[in-house]
Amino acid sequence: MTEQKTRLAFEILARENSRMLMVYLRSLIRDEAIIDDLFQESMIVAWQKLDECDRERPFGPWLRGIASRIVMAHYRKQKTIPLAMQESVLSVVDRHFEAINMLAGDTWDDKLAALHECVDALPAHQMDVIRGRYFDGLPIRMIAGRLNMSVEACKKRLQRGRMMLAECLKKKGVLSAAEVAS
């Protein structure tokens, strides 16, 4: 998989799992500032360790595993372990999240296949801009030149293509309505 495809797939999975990760962190920590810091650190570590992710397994539990290790490290630095971090409590929390993760379309390959199907279903003029930007990693100016159009028209076409892509992914159950709106 090319770097651009990997980045795009990670962005989709990270966005899709971000709310779950925030809920998970809030179930373990009370301080919003610390939650935000640990969320960011979890995402950075996930990106850095992406090649270690088993693509045959759901992304959510893998991401939660990273977050739980980061939370434990945070509390070790503070020399405290809160009640919520006891194994029995973590086990219950994890079982609840696992039930959510059993929903269809949670594996890397499922999401990537849905993404490719949606890109392939775009009208040619939108597909060209989306592929150029996200698959080939070209800047908007270069895509506009390649397609013989203004930069502003290219930006608008990219925006419309992303909206169509989001709607398609929503219909496939890969994105929620809230994620399409954001």
From TrEMBL:
Example GO BP: DNA-templated transcription initiation
Domain RNA polymerase sigma factor 70 region 4 type: 113-165
Superkingdom of source: Bacteria
Record bears the keyword Cell membrane: no
Keyword Transcription: yes
GO terms, molecular function: DNA binding; sigma factor activity
Keyword set, alphabetical order: Sigma factor, Transcription, Transcription regulation
Pfam families recorded: Sigma70_r2, Sigma70_r4_2
Domain RNA polymerase sigma-70 region span(s) in chain numbering: 13-79
Family: Belongs to the sigma-70 factor family. ECF subfamily.
Protein name: RNA polymerase sigma-70 domain protein
Record organism: Rhodopirellula europaea SH398
Organism lineage string: Bacteria, Pseudomonadati, Planctomycetota, Planctomycetia, Pirellulales
